[in-house]
Structures are given as C-alpha cells and as structure tokens.
Amino acid sequence: MQVGLGYLASKGDVNFSTLKQAVLAGSALASFTCEAFGTDRLFEITREDIDIRISEIKELIKI
User: Do 3 and 29 meet the contact criterion of CB atoms below 8 Å apart?
Assistant: First the structure.
C-alpha cells in the first residue's frame, strides 16, 4: 500500500474505503514524526515499520 496521498493517487478513485486507508497511512507517518526532531525519523523507517504501525493503529481504534 502506498501512503497518504500516494495511496489515493495509486487507486485512481476517491471513495470512503480509500479515504480511510489514506487517513490510516497518514496517521502512521505522522506518529513517526513524534519520535524524533521533525521529520528526521521518516528517513529511518522502512515499509515494514509503516505497515506495523498501521496495524497497531487499527488495533487501537477497534471498538
């Protein structure tokens, strides 16, 4: 999965499902910026790190 706007662009369609996935991806990336000064942490993460963080966020928001 692409992240954020890249995800939406790769889908070619904006609907509720793609918007939810894009918000999850953007939230995951934003959470990494809290771990270091500004966006420095983003240079250190991998695709796997992002996927794990998205899974963690999904677990946190389950009701």
Answer: yes
Helix (H, G, I), strand (E, B) or coil at 12: coil
Distance, CA of 55 to CA of 50 (rounded, Å): 9
Closest CA to 18 of 32, 28, 4: 4
Q: Whole-model pTM?
A: 0.77
Distance in angstroms (rounded) separating the CA atoms of residues 52 and 46? 10
- Give the span between the Cα atoms of 27 and 33, in whole angstroms: 10
Cα 32 from chain centroid (whole Å)? 10
Going by pLDDT thresholds of 50, 70 and 90, the confidence category of residue 48 is: very high
How many domains are contained in the chain?
1
Question: Range of 16's domain?
Answer: 5-60
